[in-house]
Amino acid sequence: MSMVSTESAAGPGPDVVDDVLRRHGARREALVQILREVQSQTGWLRRELIVRIAAGVGLTPAIVEGVASFYRFLHLRAVGQVHFLWSDNVTDRMLGSRMHARELCRLLGVRRGPPAGEGALASVDFTSCIGLGDQGPALLVNHHQVLTRIDDLRVVEIADLVQARVPPADWPAEWQRVEPQVRRADVLLAAPPMQGQALEATIARGSEATLNELEASKLRGRGGAGFATATKWNLCLRAPPPPGQHRVVVCNADEGEPGTFKDRVLLMLQPDALIEGMTVAARLLDARRGFIYLRGEYRFLLESLQEVLARRRAAGLLGTRVRGIDGFDFDIAIHLGAGAYVCGEESALIESLEGKRGTPRIRPPFPVERGYLGAPTIVNNVETFCAAAHVAWRGGAAWAALGTAESSGTKLHSVSGDCERPGVYEYPFGVTIEQILQDCGAIGPARRAQAVQVGGPSGLCLAAHEFGRRIGFEDVPTAGAFMVFDQTRDMFETARSFAHFFAHESCGFCTPCRVGTELVVRRMDKLAAGHGSLFDEAELVELEALLHGTTHCGLGASATNPLRDTLLRFRPAYERRVQSPTFTPGFDLDAELEPARRVTGRDDPLAHLDREG
Amino acid sequence: MNCFSLDGVEVPFEDGETLLAAARRAGHDVPHLCWHPALGQSGACRVCTVRVSGRLASACTTRAAPGLVVENRTPVLDAKRRTLLQMLFVEGNHFCPGCEKSGDCLLQATAYDMGMTDPHFEEFYPARPVDASHPEVWLDLNRCILCKLCVRASHEVDRKDVFAIGGYGIGAHLIVNSPSGQLGDSTFAADDLAAQVCPVGAILPKRRGFVIPIGQRRFDPESDDAGR
């Protein structure tokens, strides 16, 4: 019995393809959705399926293969009937994820990583942070379910169920429990459900006046860059849509920055605020179509979000004639990502929405001028839309009264790592790092935080002497991650894990990011293996300088931020690795002799360098 | 006519033109690999990185604007280009002495221009296939630098989409559209534009080895075209 579908393991599933194509009108823009949905029933994407899908959407098989092979969650080679992906953020590792993953592999008798043999029972691999850092170690099952709070016993229980061929859908619900874990709520998280208040206020006040309120609120984008929301919306409003088209409203729910999970909590607790924020935007921009680009890791939220959309349509808050107003037609579709961090970049996200590889576009033109299918498009973060709904409801002055001069309102922080109370904390801007550390229990008799990674690997790594600094665009900007490292942690290893993350998530388009992130990884691994020299450290500094400025997009430009920050603040962690202050060979001479030993069939002591005489 | 400044020289441009296109039209060289006058812009190789009014940008994707001050052949920028070229050399398998493209290769010529004397980084030595299935054309992926000129030429001009890009990160690679994945099974033809635009020796005509002797090739110092 197959556990992923009713298809037999040998059946290629042409009927599945035809059904999925029909559901999506065989539109090329839906290609990523089509590939995802077919794979969810067939386990992986065989060549025949790729060819059939390509014929259906009118593309060449090579282009479809190019798209499928771009996304980490789409498989062109067999994976197990149960495919486990362990979240591999540094905070998951700190909770023992790597040890548990090894144990699961041992119990299931599999080696880590695809491809599995055709029809194999299970496969186990790692994936970038899945947004459950406050309740890890966590993993994804068949890109569909999540398992949280894994411990030794749970690993054994999981292996038992797999071997008893119990489908993952029938595994205990308790294993899949995802808690919001809100530790501090302010205006956004403490707000009552948004059931049309912001829309009512917008309609009563008028669109122009509402845009003025948004401007007065000084709201800035929560995705990290901090672009003024009113400016973005105004730019979009001034861009004329192509004939027959309308502007498009996109919510970026591709929360991929490692250590960030606050959007997951908003999607769980405040989905109405998000959707109402998008609907307000649609009113101001005369948009008809909206998309929520939901990261593939949050597939488990899909049904609940669709229920909210359906409920709002039934309540006249979405769909045709919103609030009974002629011409106010706006609806939202949810697009699922398929495992690609770079799709959090807005132009890559739009490429993905159009069914392509998530390669960032050349800008200008910016999405506000030419975005989804050429139409002026705003792309905003989940938290930004929630805040915009709040501003539309309560007015700009109330929002601007919170926070600091340059950073109005509140900000959600995803707190994880070495602390007593991980979870989501909402503070007005201007809060000190120290305050958050104290509130989450990272400073105590037994604990002393040595570093905090604010805003994820793309953000800033701060050391203890900087804990007096304040969250805000003036000082420490953040996209919402707050990872705490206590005095026992090795900050070189933290930086090395982030280097691997960026190399794994590079789209491969431009030279400096594609090759540079790989060169950084090789040098960090070399240092970790004890073969590094001061020369390698100097090389890392050079690579860091090159990647700032020459890359095609921000992923490459920020890929060496953790390296830069830790070299500056935790230099002893690097120096410990430099065996000789002058020079150490970059390779292991004995290991280099291995091919010669294999060829000659020798393995005696004299065939080994270190066992000689 | 509107002008921008390129290393202190005024360069006229037409509306919508990129820095690179305008500079080339005016007879100036901006080092590049993934740009071609007949094809859409890409911005992948980054070798044309210039400093535009203080900020780094690729000349092939940046629209010219009046009054822009563009630095091109400065020692700092050439050093960055040299490193980018070294990255491309170690990422693939480039053995100039035995390559039929030697002397006619934009990667090699640009490396000489930028004063690159060694690969600097350790060679990756990736295992990449040679596809000799096509009767008239070799496809040697060891030399591919992912400039996508063949992809764009086949899509935009030949209208065949013979090529696509697959994978991600350091695993990104060229894919051939055919049932077997081999060039010989595709609709590729030797007179396609895609067969003419490869800046390196990844796509080469068969049975024409060393027709032009070494020393007389496009970028050879003795050649009339030297320095483009």
Strand order of the largest sheet of chain B: 2-1-5-3-4
The total of helices of chain A stands at 25
Name the overall outline of chain B.
globular
Return Rg of chain B in Å: 18 Å
Overall shape of chain A: globular
Average pLDDT of chain B, to the nearest integer?
95
Low-confidence stretches of chain B: none
Helicity level of chain B:
10-25%
Share of helix of chain A, binned:
40-55%
Quaternary state of the chains: heterodimer
Estimated share of beta-strand residues of chain A: 5-15%
Order of helices and strands of chain B: EEHEEEHHEEHEEE
Tell me the major beta sheet of chain A: 6 strands, mixed
Topology record:
The complex is a heterodimer of chains A (613) and B (228).
Chain A: H1 14-23, H2 31-42, H3 47-57, H4 61-68, E1 82-87, H5 90-94, H6 97-108, E2 122-127, E3 139-141, E4 145-147, H7 152-163, E5 182-184, H8 197-205, H9 207-217, H10 229-238, E6 247-253, H11 262-269, H12 271-285, E7 287-294, H13 302-314, E8 331-336, H14 346-353, E9 377-381, H15 382-394, H16 396-400, E10 410-417, E11 423-428, H17 433-439, E12 449-454, E13 460-463, E14 481-486, H18 491-505, H19 511-528, H20 534-550, H21 554-558, H22 561-569, H23 571-575, H24 589-592, H25 594-600
Parallel strand pairs in A: 1-2, 5-11, 6-7, 6-9, 7-8, 10-14
Antiparallel strand pairs in A: 1-3, 3-4, 10-11, 12-13, 12-14
Helix pairs in contact in A: 1-2, 1-3, 2-3, 3-4, 6-7, 8-9, 8-12, 8-15, 9-10, 12-15, 18-19, 18-22, 19-20
Chain B: E1 3-6, E2 9-12, H1 19-25, E3 49-52, E4 55-58, E5 69-71, H2 75-91, H3 106-113, E6 130-131, E7 137-140, H4 149-157, E8 163-166, E9 173-176, E10 203-205
Parallel strand pairs in B: 1-5
Antiparallel strand pairs in B: 1-2, 3-4, 3-5, 6-7, 7-10, 8-9
